[in-house]
Write a structure and sequence with these properties.
By secondary structure, the chain is mainly β. The chain is globular, with a radius of gyration of 21 Å. β20 and β21 form a beta hairpin. 0% of the residues lie in helices and 51% in strands. The protein starts with a strand and ends with a strand. The chain has no helices and 24 strands. It folds into three domains: 111 residues, Lipocalin (Beta Barrel); 90 residues, Sandwich (Immunoglobulin-like), CATH 2.60.40.1120; 82 residues, Immunoglobulin-like. It has a four-stranded antiparallel beta sheet, with no helix packed on it.
Amino acid sequence: DDRYLVICDEQTGLPMRILNVEDLENPFEVASYTASTESLVHNPYVLGDVLFVSHNGLGLRVLDIADPALPVEVAYHDTYPDGDSGSHGLWSACPFSTSGKIIGGNREDGIYIWTFNDTKAGRIYGTVKDSITGEVLYDAEVMLQPLDTILDIHLVESIFKYGTLAMEDLELSVTLAGYQPKSISFDMVEADSLWVEILLVPEGWVAANEPEMKEMVIAPNPTDGEVQVDLSQVEQVEYVVLFNIWGQEVYRVACKACDSVSLSLKDLPKGSYYVHVIGQGREIGLGWVLGL
């Protein structure tokens, strides 16, 4: 859509980079990727929300870039299993054939022809806040198990994020000195975008029973236009309110006895937005959407 540029420096150890180029006078990097720092990344091709990128020594890598700022590897084929470095293996792999097949040229043994099964990544986004003040706790350690992966909280967007293939029995464990630890369990579903708000209770305080937050499906997500918020599992809805990452209300939609509501992000700045569902005199649903 002419808003993002994928580039490779074609030097061993340097990653592929994804740049936002909406303002040609001020491009900036939103993500980077390499399958190995020992390999040379080159010849990326974008087809819809999928990125096909070749590696010397590591073959073809396929990335889901539905969120360009969070690319996720969803498929690969190593065409040179004898090592990651050097001028070996896949020269290029083009996905633009009319048959839908990916055509690759390998230095050692010639042509490769692949099909891609359109596997999609799942993503989780979230924030960690003080349960009393509502302030974002940037120093909290967010550990994703059983992957032993620490998720950093972004200083500008105030969120952590992670993408992976579909997986069951994942757990986020959150700790911070001076606060009671907290864990949540979830399954990662293909093509899903999950949002969690984790409230840490200060030590010495007693955690009140948190009101149940109903699950809402928000799709498509990410989007550059309108999203539909599914309210079929939420009772006594009064309003659906959209907030930016600074906690400022963007707009609200009255919604009584409705199963869904449409929110438009078309004319809003690109970035993250929170969806709050208000009813019964309190917040009864919470979600998140990424505007592209």
